[in-house]
Structure formats: C-alpha cells, structure tokens
Specification:
Length: about 220
C-alpha cells in the first residue's frame, strides 16, 4: 500500500505556481523587541557588562590582597608620589558631559519614532560631537592615573578598565557617524530610523556603565 507523504514540497511544480504568502502588508522594519537587531544588540550588551564585571572584580581583588596602600605609591618619579590618588578634573568633566549627552540622544530617539528627519539630523550631530570630546577627554584621563599600565597591577587594571571603555566609545562614535552620514545623504526611512535607535541604546549603555566605573576608579580610593 502506498502512503501519501506528510509534506508536499511541490518540487516538481514551477516556482510561480507554488503557494505563497503575501507579506506586502508587513512594515519594512520592526522596532524594539520585534527586531532581531534589537535582541542582538542587547544580548551583546549583556556580554559586555559581564566583561566589565570581571574587570571590577579583578580591581577589587588587587585592592584587597596585593597592596597595603591603594593606589600604591608611585616611586619611579622624583620626588616619589606617596599618595597618588587619580586626578578628577578631566574624568569628571567627561562624566558630566556624557550624562548631558543623554538629552539630545533621547530627543533623537523620539524623533526617529516620529520620522522627524530634521530633528534627527540636529540631535545626532550633537551626540556625535559629544562622543568625540568624550573620547579626547578619556585619552587625557590616562594621565590622571599617575601610574602607567606596566608599573604594577594597579596600573594594569585601571588602564584596562579605561582602555576597554574607550574602545566602546570609539565603536559608538563610528556607528553614530555612519547613521549621520546616511540620514544627511539619503533621508530617514523606517529601517535606518530603527538602526539609529539601536545605536543610541548602545550609547545609553556606554554612559550608564561608565558611571560606576568612574566612581570606582577615581573616587573609590578617596572614600573607601
């Protein structure tokens, strides 16, 4: 007895004669949790948050077991710096500036939802400029640590924290520049409005993760 196959693949029928699903009514792009790129971006941020968690754990471990004084004295200078707490000026300006950047970033986010291309152009340029300044201040921030990356464990872990966060600023800067160029050259469509919003979520995370890192590295030795 012959049996009817459970699945008819229609392999012998021409493509134009096979049953199809009409998707013409679906939107060109989905936003937030309905978009695969949203899930990819947020899961990436979970991984990156875990990475910084490991760095913070290493910082606290070195602080607790390896040194009687934290930060350790910087004896390679003349005269020796026996109380080398990190300087605060550059890093504090950077932190305040990054927090202020959330205002135009949120405005840009909301403008993408409304497809307000003019406001997106203005606010994305403001965010881009702030990212540039934040990156420059971060490079200066390495000098505020007093120690070099190869002086001791303190220098290595603090430079590691600042350097890896700087890499995220550079990546966000590149993403923001790309979406800005696209919007200025081609206007704002649904797909690129979504991409702009995803890049802004990345910037929110960069700002949010920096606040506890700044407090730990620059204020922790002063108050703990």
């Amino acid at each position: 007895m012959s049996r009817t196959p459970l699945i008819d693949l229609d392999v012998e029928r021409p493509a134009e004669a096979r049953p199809t699903i009409d998707v013409s009514g679906l939107p060109e792009a989905a936003n937030d949790w309905r978009a695969p790129i949203w899930w990819g971006n947020n899961l990436l941020l979970v991984i990156e948050t875990a990475m910084f968690g490991i760095l913070v754990a290493a910082y606290l471990y070195y602080w607790s077991v390896d040194f009687s004084q934290w930060p350790p004295p910087h004896v390679s200078t003349h005269p020796a710096n026996l109380d080398p707490n990190p300087k605060l000026l550059g890093s504090t300006i950077e932190t305040v500036l990054m927090l202020l950047s959330l205002v135009p970033a949120i405005m840009c986010d909301r403008a993408c939802v409304r497809f307000d291309a003019r406001r997106v152009k203005v606010t994305v340029v403001i965010v881009l400029l702030i990212e540039l300044v934040a990156g420059a201040l971060r490079i200066h921030g390495f000098k505020e640590l007093h120690h070099s990356y190869d002086d001791n464990a303190y220098g290595s872990i603090t430079w590691g924290i600042l350097f890896l966060h700087l890499l995220h600023i550079i990546v966000s800067l590149a993403e923001t520049a790309l979406v800005a160029v696209w919007v200025f050259r081609h206007g704002l469509d649904a797909r690129h409005a979504r991409d702009t919003r995803v890049s802004l979520v990345y910037w929110y995370w960069i700002v949010g993760i920096w606040v506890p890192l700044y407090l730990l590295v620059f204020w922790g030795p002063r108050v703990l």
